[in-house]
């Protein structure tokens, strides 16, 4: 299993490749707000763990293993953002909250959160009931 730092890189690389068709060291550095030298070190580590193939000055390509994990990490992030919106977290704090918790939840917990999100998406009237409870609790 990748470390939380490796997960951040794999998630960002996956997104860049999906959006642009490629991911360069400079793109990753800009997206993660880190130095290119840090990216190069991590990319080499991800290469040695067979998450991607990296050739200096030529770029990188995710392996099947890397694509699978990258896709799952993007799903986890988007799912947690949806969950935060459903439970009424202020939009301005959602990204930071998700970044703070996503590496600390088991995949079983993520799957259960997915069940909750699916339930609320299939029953939008329940979201309004939740908002009513939240407003009532704020008044108490």
Automatic annotation (TrEMBL):
<feature type="binding site">
    <location>
        <position position="99"/>
    </location>
    <ligand>
        <name>Mn(2+) 2</name>
    </ligand>
</feature>
<keyword id="KW-0805">Transcription regulation</keyword>
<dbReference type="GO" id="GO:0030145">
    <property type="term" value="F:manganese ion binding"/>
</dbReference>
<dbReference type="Pfam" id="PF02742">
    <property type="entry name" value="Fe_dep_repr_C"/>
</dbReference>
<keyword id="KW-0010">Activator</keyword>
<keyword id="KW-0804">Transcription</keyword>
<feature type="binding site">
    <location>
        <position position="8"/>
    </location>
    <ligand>
        <name>Mn(2+) 1</name>
    </ligand>
</feature>
<keyword id="KW-0963">Cytoplasm</keyword>
<feature type="binding site">
    <location>
        <position position="102"/>
    </location>
    <ligand>
        <name>Mn(2+) 2</name>
    </ligand>
</feature>
<dbReference type="InterPro" id="IPR050536">
    <property type="entry name" value="DtxR_MntR_Metal-Reg"/>
</dbReference>
<comment type="subunit">
    <text>Homodimer.</text>
</comment>
<dbReference type="GO" id="GO:0046983">
    <property type="term" value="F:protein dimerization activity"/>
</dbReference>
<dbReference type="InterPro" id="IPR036390">
    <property type="entry name" value="WH_DNA-bd_sf"/>
</dbReference>
<dbReference type="GO" id="GO:0005737">
    <property type="term" value="C:cytoplasm"/>
</dbReference>
<dbReference type="GO" id="GO:0003677">
    <property type="term" value="F:DNA binding"/>
</dbReference>
<keyword id="KW-0464">Manganese</keyword>
<keyword id="KW-0238">DNA-binding</keyword>
<feature type="domain" description="HTH dtxR-type">
    <location>
        <begin position="1"/>
        <end position="63"/>
    </location>
</feature>
<feature type="binding site">
    <location>
        <position position="102"/>
    </location>
    <ligand>
        <name>Mn(2+) 1</name>
    </ligand>
</feature>
<feature type="binding site">
    <location>
        <position position="11"/>
    </location>
    <ligand>
        <name>Mn(2+) 2</name>
    </ligand>
</feature>
<protein>
    <recommendedName>
        <fullName>HTH-type transcriptional regulator MntR</fullName>
    </recommendedName>
</protein>
<dbReference type="Pfam" id="PF01325">
    <property type="entry name" value="Fe_dep_repress"/>
</dbReference>
<dbReference type="InterPro" id="IPR022897">
    <property type="entry name" value="HTH_tscrpt_reg_MntR"/>
</dbReference>
<keyword id="KW-0479">Metal-binding</keyword>
<dbReference type="InterPro" id="IPR036421">
    <property type="entry name" value="Fe_dep_repressor_sf"/>
</dbReference>
<dbReference type="GO" id="GO:0030026">
    <property type="term" value="P:intracellular manganese ion homeostasis"/>
</dbReference>
<dbReference type="InterPro" id="IPR022687">
    <property type="entry name" value="HTH_DTXR"/>
</dbReference>
<feature type="binding site">
    <location>
        <position position="77"/>
    </location>
    <ligand>
        <name>Mn(2+) 2</name>
    </ligand>
</feature>
<comment type="similarity">
    <text>Belongs to the DtxR/MntR family.</text>
</comment>
<comment type="function">
    <text>Central regulator of manganese homeostasis.</text>
</comment>
<dbReference type="GO" id="GO:0003700">
    <property type="term" value="F:DNA-binding transcription factor activity"/>
</dbReference>
<dbReference type="InterPro" id="IPR001367">
    <property type="entry name" value="Fe_dep_repressor"/>
</dbReference>
<keyword id="KW-0678">Repressor</keyword>
<feature type="binding site">
    <location>
        <position position="99"/>
    </location>
    <ligand>
        <name>Mn(2+) 1</name>
    </ligand>
</feature>
<dbReference type="InterPro" id="IPR022689">
    <property type="entry name" value="Iron_dep_repressor"/>
</dbReference>
<dbReference type="InterPro" id="IPR036388">
    <property type="entry name" value="WH-like_DNA-bd_sf"/>
</dbReference>
<feature type="binding site">
    <location>
        <position position="103"/>
    </location>
    <ligand>
        <name>Mn(2+) 1</name>
    </ligand>
</feature>
């Amino acid at each position: 299993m990748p470390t939380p730092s490796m997960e951040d890189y794999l998630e960002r690389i996956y997104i860049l490749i999906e959006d642009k068709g490629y991911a360069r060291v400079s793109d990753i550095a800009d997206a993660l707000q880190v130095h290119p030298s840090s990216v190069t070190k991590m990319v080499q580590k991800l290469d040695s763990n067979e998450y991607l193939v990296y050739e200096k000055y030529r770029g990188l390509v995710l392996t099947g293993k890397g694509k699978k994990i990258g896709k799952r990490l993007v799903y986890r992030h988007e799912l947690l953002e949806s969950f935060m919106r459903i439970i009424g977290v202020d939009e301005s704090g959602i990204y930071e909250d998700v970044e703070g918790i996503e590496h600390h939840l088991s995949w079983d917990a993520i799957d259960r959160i997915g069940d909750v999100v699916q339930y609320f998406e299939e029953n939008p009237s329940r979201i309004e009931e939740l908002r009513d409870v939240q407003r009532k609790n704020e008044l108490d």
